[in-house]
Design a protein that fits this description.
- By secondary structure, the chain is an all-alpha fold.
- It has helices at 24-32, 36-39, 45-79, 86-107, 123-158, 168-172, 174-188, 194-212, 218-234, 239-254, 259-269, 276-288, 292-304, 310-326, 331-346, 351-361, 372-384, 391-397, 399-414, 429-438, 440-443, 445-455, 461-479, 489-519, 523-534, 538-555, 558-575, 580-593, 602-611, 615-638, 641-651, and strands at 161-163, 166-167.
- The chain is built from 31 helices and two strands.
- Strands 1-2 form a two-stranded antiparallel sheet.
- It is globular, with a radius of gyration of 24 Å.
């Protein structure tokens, strides 16, 4: 096995491809290279200009997302007045980042799917599978673009303005434009030849025409449509088209207008805390692309290197630090994996246990602030049920459970290395002080983030996140000078925007799935009624919740699972008298296991890619870590004081 030891990500994140991100057509194109037009497509100067324009809009939006909240605070403190409608502009820049980032994800073939079935199909069937999946995805995406257009027309008629003469509908146009661009790119990715793309487009066009003419009706075609939805999803259609397709089928059946989907997407994308997602992720990317990982590893090695489990503890601590900012996006494994594996192997841990430990550690940190899944859970929970939760409740509630998971996994790692193979290193205070001094700027990042959030110096979490991103940018560009402002920053910001755009795209469509399907169909009410009739014990419900969330984590990424499942499960938990803080941490801790659970555990695929190993081999190596983390999740579930102690002690009574 070839292992690279690098300071920056090598290769860049934009180069990595794993099965859940790569469509069948791209794999065929890489192998076949039969389409000379496709080979020369990116050399077209018009295409190059379009790509540069997209990248520029994304980078500019991210920069303004950082600078506007900070500039607003400076102006208000200095002159008593700030930027008019600053918060609205910030929210709409988050909308632009989501849609443009999603369009770039489609351009780079990095839209998230949930199926790897096409890997096991014979080569002669892969092209047919790609045509069907991309045809369905194109139809759904075109309908989402139409919903966005109808939404914009309604908003344009209302004549709403943001400020400085900027009409709200100008920015809202990014919804139909973004989905329209994605639809074109889905057609292009349908196959390596023009005829494959034509067949995919014809399939989508024919279905759309039959719908418009009323030739197919819900009464006669709903079973066939559901089969087509499931088949396209299994054959590689992006996840957002599965959720969007299910919602569209329900609206079709009930004869409801589809414009409501765009309304739900817009409301989620411009929710008050959504800008914190790209901001905190950007801070994590700045650290991951610099030498920060080396400095932090040196600190943790100096602190715990003398213990028998020292190298493993270094792995756990540095992974948790990075994942807290990147939200389990996989950046941790891609950035730190090549650095950590040689350390563990050199310490006599063995290649297989080391591989499993790094894969499992990549999910740690989700319960630590400023975790993006915690922020998203708070947004979705408050949007559907009035629990009285504050973001600070969840941040504090996740600290002890997160440390418990680290502690139990640390105990497990002691048995991975026999005593006779362990060569203890003496603790050197001088080395620790030197390492702390070298990494002082990175170690101060959580202090900046949490200090701004809890101190009241900044009025909103978005401003605290903007300060954190700006601080990380300043440290890596100005102080350490490890990111070049012209050579590195555009690449890093585009990669961050691509990932965030793909996530926000799923979240927006998942929100419409929740509001326009689950809520209209009264699914939460029916679930409460059924569970109340069949489950009497609170503890039986908690056990059932653990099993259900583990299964959900096998099939859904953590972000879409939060948006789809929280409106269903939160009312059930409250019905059984479970503390809302405790319920939220149970939810997130269970989904954390989903990163390690086949068939769609994201960390399994990323580790397989990074270390050039088969996915099944990585899954087997990670199984002991999964079992240990499952034990810690059960303790978190049945010992609620682990979650509620800090929030109630520091912030006062129950929410």
């Amino acid at each position: 096995m070839r292992v690279e030891t690098v300071g920056k990500l090598s290769p860049p994140l934009s180069d990595f491809k794993v099965p859940i991100y790569v469509s069948p057509s791209d794999r065929m194109s890489e192998n076949m290279n039969t389409d000379s037009v496709a080979q020369g497509w990116h050399a077209n100067p018009v295409i190059r200009v379009m790509r540069s324009l997209e990248n520029g809009v994304l980078i500019l939006s991210l920069m303004l997302l950082i600078l506007l909240p900070l500039l607003e605070r400076i102006l208000r403190a200095s002159f008593g007045t700030g930027i008019q409608a600053e918060s609205e502009f910030v929210l709409h820049f988050a909308l632009i980042i989501g849609m443009v980032g999603g369009a770039i994800a489609a351009r780079e073939n990095r839209l998230l799917g949930i199926s790897t079935l096409t890997q096991f199909l014979p080569d002669q069937w892969k092209l047919a599978a790609s045509i069907l999946a991309h045809g369905w995805a194109t139809l759904v995406t075109c309908l989402l673009a139409l919903a966005g257009w109808e939404f914009v027309l309604d908003e344009r008629g209302a004549g709403n303005m943001i400020a400085y003469g900027v009409a709200r509908w100008w920015i809202q146009m990014v919804l139909p434009a973004g989905f329209g661009l994605m639809a074109l790119r889905l057609v292009w990715k349908a196959g390596p030849t023009w005829w494959a793309r034509f067949l995919s487009l014809a399939f989508a066009f024919a279905l759309g025409l039959l719908l418009k003419k009323g030739v197919i009706t819900p009464q006669s075609w709903m079973p066939a449509a559901l089969i087509m939805l499931v088949a396209a999803t299994l054959l590689g259609a992006p996840l957002y088209t599965a959720l969007g397709g299910a919602t569209l089928l329900y609206l079709w059946k009930e004869d409801f207008p589809i414009s409501g989907m765009a309304t739900s997407h817009y409301s989620l994308s411009t929710e008050a805390l959504i800008p914190t997602i790209p901001l905190f992720t950007l801070a994590g990317y700045f650290m991951a692309e610099s030498q920060a990982s080396r400095r932090l590893m040196r600190v943790f090695q100096a602190m715990v290197g003398q213990f028998r489990a020292g190298p493993a503890l270094v792995t756990l601590l540095v992974c948790a630090f990075f994942t807290a900012f990147t939200g389990g996006s996989g950046v941790t494994i891609l950035a730190l994996g090549p650095l950590l594996l040689p350390i563990l192997v050199a310490a006599k841990y063995g290649e297989k246990p080391s591989l499993g430990l790094i894969t499992g550690a990549g999910a740690l940190g989700i319960l630590f602030p400023p975790s993006l899944p915690i922020i998203l859970y708070f947004i979705v929970a408050n949007a559907n049920v009035q629990t009285g939760l504050r973001l600070e409740h969840l941040f504090l509630g996740g600290l002890v459970p997160g440390m418990l998971m680290l502690f139990i996994l640390g105990l497990y790692t002691r048995r991975l290395i026999p005593k006779d193979k362990f060569a203890p290193k003496p603790f050197l205070l001088s080395e620790l002080l030197s390492a702390l001094w070298e990494a002082k700027w990175e170690l101060f990042i959580p202090v900046v983030a949490l200090g701004a959030l809890f101190s009241g110096w900044f009025s909103t979490p978005v401003a605290a996140a903007a300060l954190t991103a700006f601080y990380a940018l300043f440290v890596e560009v100005v102080i350490h000078r490890e990111l070049h402002p012209w050579k590195d920053l555009p690449r890093v910001m585009c990669e961050c925007g691509l990932l965030v755009g793909g996530v926000l795209l799923i979240l927006g469509v998942a929100m419409s799935f929740t509001k326009d399907f689950l809520i209209f169909a009264m699914v939460p009410d029916m679930a409460i009624e059924w569970v109340s009739a069949h489950v009497e014990s609170k503890y039986v419900f908690l056990l059932a919740l653990n099993v259900f969330l583990l299964l959900a984590g096998c099939l859904m990424d953590i972000y879409s699972a939060i948006v789809v499942l929280v409106p269903l499960l939160l009312p059930l938990g409250l019905e059984f008298g479970i503390d809302p803080i405790h319920l939220g941490i149970i939810f997130l801790a269970n989904l954390e296991l989903g990163y390690l659970t086949p068939p769609v555990g994201l960390n399994l695929f990323l580790a397989a890619y990074r270390f050039e190993k088969p996915v099944l081999e990585v899954a087997r190596a990670s199984l002991p870590v999964l079992l240990v983390l499952t034990l810690s999740v059960l303790l978190i579930t049945y010992l609620p004081f682990l979650t509620t102690l800090l929030p109630y002690w520091i912030l006062g009574g129950a929410p």
